[in-house]
Structures are given as structure tokens and as C-alpha cells.
């Protein structure tokens, strides 16, 4: 029997969850946006595409939307490079809404439509307590039996949009695997912060959404415990690329490597952001700001005004965020700077470190020190710094996640092979696919 905290689906990671309206009134072809989305390739194509027959589609158009999903997926689903998981209507407090979503699932999954062989599952919004999750799961089972599909073949993803759904995530481990349900079909746990804010009656002075860090942490933890994948909700300011990137970075630090994407541009950003950079770089942090140093003539140069450095007859004067320090020796200065400096490794750096540790382990060593050195220049003053990090098996396993993510992307997204080779070089890609195996 597979442990609950082991992945049971083909994908170990999902970076992008991209929704598309299924039918638009007033258009000559109401499925125009579906046809455009199913043609996306490379970095513009998401890991999971969600033809959205709920919020993105007007209620009066949803019957036509279900028909459009079946037609478009039947025509182009075989060539789409990601997974396809339509979202249908559902609501924990409305039997009528749940039944309508069930009817749409039955229609889309009907083998006579030719679409179900390309559909990986369905997304269920507005779930409530664990009993509501079981109702949805039962409908999946009925759809599968009605159409002679293998039981459990349709994955179920849910959107966490209520306090009840958040609490239900804590019960998944005790419920999954019982003979009375097929909850092992669960795939994605997706946060829906807008409706979650409404459900909790939250208020902010600006009317904007709270950050809901606790919800994102709870979803990531539940996904890890139940063998699912966590995905953050939509980032509505589609012009704010830097803010979107920062949100992804913060999510990645808590194990949530997936995020909702509203545009092909956001898909590109979310596809690339969790991957290691093509070139490593140093950062300097002071106060609440972190800046990237510029590599120039063999040195890592800081040109800002947050940190200042001057060499004097008796040592060094260091200014950090308005505070001044006098340091008498090179060692004292180096120690202060190392507290502010960090190195962000490239994919090549990560592969190098893993290969070095694997070689040491093969030679019988249980732990080795990895050294990272650089010359840092601040206000024309150059300082040589070096930091050591001890690598043991636990460090190796923890830092293998970026490589495992890269390997999962490479194996599941052949349409991105050229993009990855162009970004990293074919040689680095080949080594990354061999390390840690």
C-alpha cells in the first residue's frame, strides 16, 4: 500500500494552474479562448490547464461551456503538453449547484464526445467539510461507472475557499484509504483567497485581500501529509510581474511550488520562477531590503546607498541602514559582511555540489564542507569573503528538491526541452538529469 505522504499521480510538481473561460456570449465562436489556450506550447503552456466552467463563465453560458470543453479537448487534447482538469460548478450549501456540476461532468466525460481520454480530472470549487469532499468523490465514482471508466482514473482537485474546507484538510489522512471512499484520487489542493476572505468575513482598510500566510502554510502542510500538491490562488494584479514573482518565491519557501496563473505571461513567470537560475548570484540584505550584487571584473559590486564602506588608517568604517560601525580588522569586517551576504546557486552550482557530495559518499565520507568564495566591492573597497557549509545526507536530500523539480519538468514537459537547453545549456541539462538518480 502506498503511504499517504507519497505522490500517487504522474506529476510530482505543478508550477502553473491556468484557467480559461469555457464560453463567452456575443462571440461568433463562444469557445475562442479555449481554442487559443489548448494551442499553447513551451513556457507559455501550463502544467495544469483548467477550462473554467465556474467563475470565469457566466451562469447562462455554462451548459454551452460544457459542450465547448468536450468539443475543444476532443479536437486538440492529444497534443496539449500539460494536464487538463476542467472546473465545474459546486457548492457545499447548494444541492442544485452540485447536481448541475455533476451533470456537466457526466457530459464532458462521456466517451462518445471523444474528450475523456485527454482529460485527467476535474476541479471542484467551494467545498466544505470532509463529508462534502466525499460527496464530490462519490459523483466522480458514479461518472466513472456510468461511462465504464476505471474507478479512480479521474483525479479530483479542490479549491479551499472556506474555513470548513481548511479544517477538512486536517482530516484527509484519517479518511483517505477507507473502503467507503476513493479520496486517493485527490490531486491538487488550491487556495481560493477571494472567497476565503468572504467566508471569514475579513476586512482590510484598503479593501484588498489579506495575505493569508497561515492558509497557504496549512494547504502546503496538508498536501504533503496527504500525497497531494499545493497550489496558491490567483494574483489579480497581472501587470505586477515583480509582485507575482515575490509571491511565488515566498510560496516556494513553504513548499507551495504551484500558483494560479491568469494570463500566458503569468504562466511563463510561474513556470520559470521555481527553477534554479541559469547563473548564480550574490545578494546583500540590510534592514528589510535585499539587493542583487552585480558581477563586474571579477568582483561582486554593490552600488546602492543602503550600505557604505570606507577604509581608514585604523580599520574600516561600515554604515548599514543609517547605523555606523568601526571595525579594526579584516576578519571583523568579513564577519559583518557575511551576515548580510547570501549566494543564490545556479542549476550548474547545485549539480556541482550534488556530484561532489555523491563522489565523497562513494569514497566513504559521510560529510564534507562546501566553500563559496567571492570578492565583494562596496564604495570601491574590495573584501574577500568565503563561507563554508557542511553537507551531509540530510542536507543532500533537502537540497535535492530543486533538482527533482527540474527532472519532473523535463520528463513531463518535452515541449519545454528546447527552452531549458537554451536557458541552461544542453550539457548542464544532461548532468541535471543524471544527478541524484
Derived structural class: alpha/beta
CATH architecture of the largest domain: Alpha-Beta Barrel
CATH superfamily of the largest domain: Phosphoenolpyruvate-binding domains
CATH topology of the largest domain: TIM Barrel
How many domains in all?
Answer: 2
Strand order of the largest sheet: 3-2-1-8-7-6-5-4
Portion of residues in beta strands equals: 15-25%
Number of strands: 18
Uncertain ranges:
none
- Helical proportion, percent range: 25-40%
Categorize the overall geometry. Answer: elongated
N- to C-terminal distance = 23 Å
CATH class of the largest domain: Alpha Beta
Rounded to an integer in angstroms, the radius of gyration calculated over CA atoms is 25 Å
* Overall pLDDT: 94
Q: Mind summarizing the main beta sheet?
A: 8 strands, parallel
* Number of helices in the DSSP assignment: 16
Amino acid at each position: 500500500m502506498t503511504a499517504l505522504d507519497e505522490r500517487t499521480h504522474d506529476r510530482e510538481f505543478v508550477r502553473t494552474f491556468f484557467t480559461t473561460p469555457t464560453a463567452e456570449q456575443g462571440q461568433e465562436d463562444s469557445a475562442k479562448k479555449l481554442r487559443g489556450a489548448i494551442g499553447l506550447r513551451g513556457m507559455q503552456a501550463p502544467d495544469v490547464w483548467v477550462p473554467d466552467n465556474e467563475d470565469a463563465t457566466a451562469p447562462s453560458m455554462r451548459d454551452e461551456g460544457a459542450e465547448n470543453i468536450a468539443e475543444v479537448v476532443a479536437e486538440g487534447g492529444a497534443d496539449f503538453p500539460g494536464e487538463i482538469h476542467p472546473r465545474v460548478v459546486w457548492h457545499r450549501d447548494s444541492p442544485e449547484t452540485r447536481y448541475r456540476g455533476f451533470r456537466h461532468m457526466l457530459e464532458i466525460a462521456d466517451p462518445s464526445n471523444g474528450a475523456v481520454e485527454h482529460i485527467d480530472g476535474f476541479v471542484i470549487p467551494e467545498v466544505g467539510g470532509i463529508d462534502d469532499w466525499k460527496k464530490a468523490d462519490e459523483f466522480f465514482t458514479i461518472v466513472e461507472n456510468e461511462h465504464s471508466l476505471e474507478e479512480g482514473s479521474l483525479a479530483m482537485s479542490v479549491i479551499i475557499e472556506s474555513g470548513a474546507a481548511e479544517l477538512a484538510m486536517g482530516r484527509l489522512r484519517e479518511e483517505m484509504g477507507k473502503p467507503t471512499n476513493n479520496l486517493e484520487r485527490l490531486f491538487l489542493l488550491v487556495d481560493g483567497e477571494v472567497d476565503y476572505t468572504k467566508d471569514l468575513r475579513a476586512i482590510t482598510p484598503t479593501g484588498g485581500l489579506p495575505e493569508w500566510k497561515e492558509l497557504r502554510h496549512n494547504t502546503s502542510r496538508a498536501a504533503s501529509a496527504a500525497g497531494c500538491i499545493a497550489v496558491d490562488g490567483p494574483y489579480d494584479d497581472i501587470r505586477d510581474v515583480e509582485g507575482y514573482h515575490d509571491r511565488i518565491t515566498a510560496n516556494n519557501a513553504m513548499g507551495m511550488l504551484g500558483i494560479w496563473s491568469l494570463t500566458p505571461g503569468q504562466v511563463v513567470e510561474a513556470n520559470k520562477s521555481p527553477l534554479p537560475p541559469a547563473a548564480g548570484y550574490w545578494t546583500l540584505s540590510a534592514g528589510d531590503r535585499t539587493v542583487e550584487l552585480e558581477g563586474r571584473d571579477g568582483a561582486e559590486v554593490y552600488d546602492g546607498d543602503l550600505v557604505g564602506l570606507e577604509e581608514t588608517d585604523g580599520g574600516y568604517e561600515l554604515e548599514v541602514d543609517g547605523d555606523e560601525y568601526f571595525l579594526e580588522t579584516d576578519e571583523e569586517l568579513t564577519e559583518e559582511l557575511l551576515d548580510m551576504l547570501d549566494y543564490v546557486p545556479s542549476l550548474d552550482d547545485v549539480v556541482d555540489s550534488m556530484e561532489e557530495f555523491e563522489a565523497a559518499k562513494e569514497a566513504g565520507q559521510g560529510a564534507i564542507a562546501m566553500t563559496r568564495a567571492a570578492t565583494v566591492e562596496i564604495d570601491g573597497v574590495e573584501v574577500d569573503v568565503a563561507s563554508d557549509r557542511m553537507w551531509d545526507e540530510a542536507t543532500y536530500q533537502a537540497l535535492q528538491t530543486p533538482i527533482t523539480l527540474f527532472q519532473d519538468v523535463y520528463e513531463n514537459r518535452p515541449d519545454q526541452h528546447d527552452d531549458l537547453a537554451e536557458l541552461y545549456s544542453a550539457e548542464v541539462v544532461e548532468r541535471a538529469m543524471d544527478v541524484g538518480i
